[in-house]
Structures are given as structure tokens and as C-alpha cells.
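Section 3.1: Structural characterization of target chains.
Under the original work plan, the team committed to producing a structural model for every single-chain target entering the pipeline before any wet-lab resources were allocated. The record below documents one such target. The sequence was received from the expression subgroup and is listed exactly as submitted; it comprises 439 residues.
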Amino acid sequence: MEWHMALILMLGSLFLLMAIGTPVVFAFLSVNLLGAWLFLGEAAGLAQWARNTTASIGSFSLTPIPLFILMGEVLFHTGLAFKAIDSIERMISRVPGKLSIVSILGGTTFATLSGSSIANTAMMGGVMLPEMLRRGYHPTMAMGPIMAVGGIAMLIPPSALAVMLGSLAGISIERLLIGGILPGMLMALGFLAYVVVRSRLRPQDAPMSEDDGPRLTGWALWKPFVLNVVPLLGIFIAVVGSMLAGWASPTESAAIGVLASVIATIAYRALTLKALWKSLIETAKVSVVILFILAASTTFAQLLSFSGASAGFLGMIKDYNLSPFALVICMLLVLLVIGTVLDQISMMMIALPFFMPLALAAGVDTVWLGVMILIALEIGLLTPPFGLLLIVMQSVAPPSIRLPHIYRAAVPFLVIEVGVLALVLFIPWIAVGLPGLIG
């Protein structure tokens, strides 16, 4: 079979299955079975497919995924994350756009501890959105920051998706995790700047309220922050610092994070058997799904390679003689376009088998590229019509909030995210500077 026919068969079958509503994992599984039968030799091919699938998830480098998830679940189900957000709100006195600022600071804090974009948006939406709307906040100022900081969880470690990307793309997981810190912080600062400026220019969009309470000073102002936020930020510092110093691998730093989280919950007397059991169950559910997806994606890439589709497609691209920079721009444009209709995992599974061989052949820094891919995936979370965080927000918003309102709320923050992507594209040090410090 010619390579272009194999490519059309594989991708066409995949898109057809997803178009009729087949879950992503089972769509890839079905295409893998078809490919194994056709390209690996019928029954013998299916046996080889089973061996490849088992081997793809047997790597020790995937261990941080369940550990990072468990770390966030423990903090979520014991309620420490809610305490941290409440403390941040008390620390911020009567300032314009206070609740929007709390959403950004609290959401970023939870993002550094959970690594889950969906959990971040669902929690912040459930906690902050009703109160913001009650106080008369414009929907853009109420929903926009909550959705925007949800995506930051994809960049700032611990990030299970970054581990997944590093594993699929063959990028150093340690350097990829560290590389997402500065872009994630830049996004948070950009969101804050937008909220502050808009609150000053249009105070009616984020009205002050008597509920904001009196202005606190001294220890009364800082006590909740010191007691409930600083210790949790210490967990993030332990995870990232151990990797930066070269003292721990990603797996070891993830284990440190879990241990620190459990110790913190015990110290706060928040850990119960019920919360621990719930955390373990949710961790198992999410981890199984991610590992299933990793197995499907790896074998999909292998089948594309064995059928000749990957080599044929890459050869066609090389014939255009694109410069490495132009090649990277084309990759990012492809991700931004398909991000409007596909979820992040599907985007990775489809694009990486083609992108990474091209990047390696062109001599592109894979950590730089990996961080930009993460940002592009994050942008896809907020991109209409099928951005995942838009759907999550709709699920927690009051019935009076329609999907077009949610789309409009996301637009200013999408612009900021694209701006950060452009910065990383033209100033690679933002992505590779910190990873270069790893001992």
C-alpha cells in the first residue's frame, strides 16, 4: 500500500470514529487494531500489537503521572486548597477587581499543587463564580480569569500532561517540567495586569462591595497567608527545587511532593480515611485513562511508521526546504487550528508522530518546542467551539449564562496566551533558561 493511502486510511478512520462520537481512546484502539491487522500481518500482527502496547506503558519514566495526580487529589479532598484560596482573599483588601484577582492568584496557587486544568476550573468556578456574579461582576471578569488560570496547570509543575508529552515526544521530562514555569508565571502576570487595568478603566465591571470588609493591617493581614498558603507553596518549592538542584529525578520529586502533601494534611489535621480513600480512587481512575491513552498513542505512532506513512509524509515536508524557525511556526499553526475542534490528548496523539521526527531532523531544541506545544495545547482549552475549559465552565455556571457569554469571556485571556506563545517563540530563553540550570 502506498504511504499516502495508508495515511488516509489511518487518519480517515480515526476522524470518522471521533465524528460519530466514539471516545478518543476507543477510536485510537480501533484504528490500532485495523492497522496491526493490515500492516503487521493479521493474527501475528495483533500479537505484536499486544506486546508493543504492554511495553509502551512499562516505562519507569511514567511513574510521576499517578504521583502528581495523587498529590493534587489529597490537597483537594482534604480541603487545604480551599483554605489557601480563602486566605488569599482575606489578604487582598478593598481593591478594584478583588475577586478576579483572587481567582487568578488562588487558581495559580492551586495549579502549582494539582496539575489538573479541569479540577482547577471546576473548583474555582464552583467556589468563586456565584459570589462574583452576585456582586455584579461582568461575566468576562467573573468567568475569564477562572478559565484562564485553569490552563496554567498544564504548564506549571506538577503537570501530568507535561509528563505525558515528554514521554510521547522523547523530551526530557525533567527539563520540560521546569521549562513551563516562567511561561506559566508570565501568563498569570498578564492576566493580573489585564484585570487591574480593566478594573481601573471600567470599575462598573468589577464593582466594590461592602462585603469586601474592612482593611486589615499588620499580622491580621498576613496571618492567614502565612499559615495556610506559605506551607503549601513549600510543597511546590520542594518538588521544583529538588529537580533544579539535581537532587531528584521527576519520579523522585513527585514522590517528595506526595509525601509533603500527606504530611501537610496531617499537620493541619485535615487528613481522614475517607478523604485518603477518595484521593486514591480518583488517582487510580485518572491514571488508568492516561496510561490507556499513552498505550494507544504509542502503538498508533508505531503503525504509522511501519506502514510508511510517517516516512512518506516527512519526506514530502522536507521537499519544501523550510527553515527550522518556519517549520516550528507551521507546527504551532497546525496545533492552534486543530485545537478548535480536538481535545489536547487527541492533538498530541495525532501531531507528535509527525512533529518530533521533523524537529529532530531540523535540529530544533526539543525542550523549547515542547514548552510551546504545551502553550498551544493550553490555548486549545479556551478556543471555541470545543475548548474543554469552556465546557467545564458551562457545567458550573448558572443557567442564565449561555455558551456565547463564555466564549466572549475567554477572548481577552486567549489574546494574552497567544502573546506569551509569541514571546517564547522569539525569546527561547523563557522556556530553556531554567532547564539550563539543572545540575
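The chain has one domain: 3-437.
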